[in-house]
Input
Amino acid sequence: MTVAPETNCPDPGARSTTVVVGAVDDFAEGEMKMAKVGERRVAVIRTASGIHAIDNACPHQGYGLVTGALDGELVTCQWHNWKFRVDTGECVMGEEGVPCHAVKVENGEVWVTVIEPTPDEERERLWPSLQRGVEGNYVGQVARDSIRLMASDATPEAIAWVGFEHALPREEWGPGHAMATAVDCLAWAVERDGDERVLPLVQGLAGLAELTRGRPARLRRDPQIGDLIAAVEREDHNAAMGIARYLAAEADPAEVRELFIEAASMHHLSYGHGIIYTQKAFELLDLVGWDKADLILHELALATTWGTREDTLPYMRKTVAEVEALDLAALAAVPVDPEWDDPGLVDEMLDIERAPIAAAVAALEAGAGVERLLDAVALAVSRRLLRYDLDIEFDVDESFGWLDITHGLTTARAARWAWRVYPSPATVRQTLWAVWLCHDTSRGEQRHGIRPDPEIVGAEGDIADLIRRGDVEGALAAIRAAGFDAGPSMIEASLADSAGSFIVTAHLIKLTKAAIEEAEATGSDLPLLAAGRYLAAPRLERFVSGAVNESLAFVNTGRPPTR
Output
């Protein structure tokens, strides 16, 4: 009789249970039987190579393997056709392996030993499995491994880092929506306890995995001494990435953060995403530790270098000229006047005729301070989301949608973060880019007219359920009644898979996070209401038809689309 090699099974060292599962003659070759060993249900399988024992529960969804099919040394769970080697538990078709247990034949009896691993042993087994799950975008495996890892004392930060480490060097243009979304999700996860951590954690990992599946990792540049901002300005991404690695190892973290904020604020990058991605990268460092800076900053340097410099485009020329003519250092140094008050500033931010740079500068000169100027921006963008005409959303010939308006709020939030950690001329400039973007979110109103602000009367209700049901009026009423306590329910709604594509999911999550923080900063529920309407109302979830129409128009006429 051949005994299944114990070297392929877990090493002893933790609590073990050994039982007799039957006589050798009870197991015919090619036969599988279920036996209970302690609390485990084990599939005992005899093949030409010997008697083997693996967990009976298929690791996919728990269906019994003994109800499957045995072919030589492979057992198939016929529910979804996953296949496992009976001698090692290795999964040869499917996502993850099944635990293997030691078998000993003695005096004609078959003994099976189940060793319950220590948390350290379990984590050692699960880390490679989670890595494979992320690489393959196997969301179920990622979820199961995350649950098991946290049960074995792994932290959400360590679990999430598996996704970041895989995805950051594989995102095509550097860290983008997937990174930013995963950072917000991780922040929510670490605030929670027990199983409540799983959904935000896995939602973030799923985005990282989805956007990078099958992509090769980027070469990491050698560290080099140099001027980060100069390298970014000349669009030398290789130099910028090398300098970022040197800074990660040698420079003071606060000074490095300031350099990256300066680099992102030199231009209005990628419709505001330049400063958003900078904010999220440094928030990630706060969560996972500066020892991860080498990779994070290397990739952030790429995204910053290659970001579209929107301020170089014709439609921003007037604003750029206004900003270049300012003494930004003097504006940054104006003392904040606690008595300053301009109740009309939000309405000026909503002006659809011209970018309100002059009004913003006047407010700063009068002592409003950057934070209260950003309050006005956040409230104006929130009102624009609340009065957005949903008919625009389903006009596939319209290049502007309310997903674009959400950038106004998330950029305002990022500019506020930048000012708080680095009050400087650079972050005054960044704030003025946010003011311009607030104006640019009026494109729908410029073309289709301005709808009145909705009247919202508070009424009790289950916010998350109302959002899931698409009851816009009910959701807004419930959010108004709940006030600042609406945040947790809105987080649940943003995580609830209500979008048909990752890019929309990303905006649901990022907008909700920014809205909760901006509501606290402004002392107003308008950001919460704006995000609640975006969560509950109909949205264009995929963009294929719009892309086709736009492409047809361009190919047939040679003219660019209306911006």
Remarks:
- Residues 264 and 275 are 6 Å apart (CA to CA).
- Residues 502-522 form the longest helix (21 residues).
- DSSP finds 25 helices and ten strands in the chain.
- The first strand starts at residue 16 and ends at 23.
